[in-house]
Amino acid sequence: MHRPDHPAPPPDAYLRTLLLALLAGGLLTALKLPLGWMLGAMLATAWLGWRDAAAVPEVVRPAGLVVLGLGLGQTFTAPVAAAVAASLPAILAGGMLSLVAGLAVAPLYRRIAGTDARTAYYAAIPGGIVTMAVLAQRAGAAVPAVTMAQTIRMAVVVLTFPPLVAVFAAGGRDAGFSAALPPFAWGGATLLLVGGTLVALAGARAGLANAAMLAPCLLAMGLSGQGLLPSSIPRWMVDAAQVAMGASLGLRLTPQALGAGPRRLALAGLVSALAVALLLAALGLALGRFAGLPPVAVVLGLAPGGMPEMAVTAKALELAVPLVLGFHLVRTVLCNLLVGPLWRAAVALRVAR
């Protein structure tokens, strides 16, 4: 994965990145750090990237997302799917709270960054990096500032939430969201991987957002719900997906990826990321207690990180994975549908000026 206006990196750059990502991921995992494989790969790749010495094949992230999607979808047995459906009111409320939290933090970002209100709004809303960049471009906001803020927020959440949530992880486990999975079988797992790849390609062709993860996830959900899952996705495959995702995320933290810009933009991104994370953590605890759901899992469901990163965190910590995934799926849909109308409503009500 490299910029099109740069020459292709030498083969040894790919090998160097892979070896250092595995070494760092293995070290953090051995130290019992939650999400060690992903965090180690991310930090190692970012370190190399700052020296213009990192290289990750473009296929790595989508391949990791296919595995992760299958691993998450397999947890949606019929009883678990029913439990998630019963929690839909709380999940919808969580999605709306996420958008409102971004709107509330936007003035703080604007004050520090010195941008216009529109750019501050799109920079502060906790959506996906690509999604918010596209929406910002459509709305006429400053895309580089929005991309930098969203990337910094992603890195802050990925670095801080797993270790903090791990301290209280026992409070996020709930038998109602746990599934008994079939044993691992090489033949069945191979069929799942091939099927997941095919539906991911079909989903991307059809324009499905985040098709590499969502399409395989939907496939595994359907098979699991009908009791037709031919194999489980083992932990070591999910760990490999963590390395793939971490290395790809690390490339987004380099000066080349973030782009040159005033330091105050980076400071605004950091401060607003911490602010929205704290606000949503408090709201998640309150919503979990009010709705009778495991509060720690709801906090992770409202965490302003990316859906793949937060879902794999839930998987690694053995939290209520389907519930966490449900929160992030709904927020993704609401971001695409409501970010623009919410901005226009805020302007009309003079909330954003």
Automatic annotation (TrEMBL):
The chain crosses the membrane at residues 20-50, 90-109, 121-140, 152-172, 184-202, 265-283, 319-343. GO terms for biological process: regulation of gene expression. InterPro entries: AbrB_fam (IPR007820). It comes from the Bacteria. Signal peptide: none annotated. It holds the Pfam family AbrB. Keywords: Membrane, Transmembrane, Transmembrane helix. One of its GO terms (cellular component) is membrane. This is AbrB family transcriptional regulator. It comes from Neoroseomonas soli.
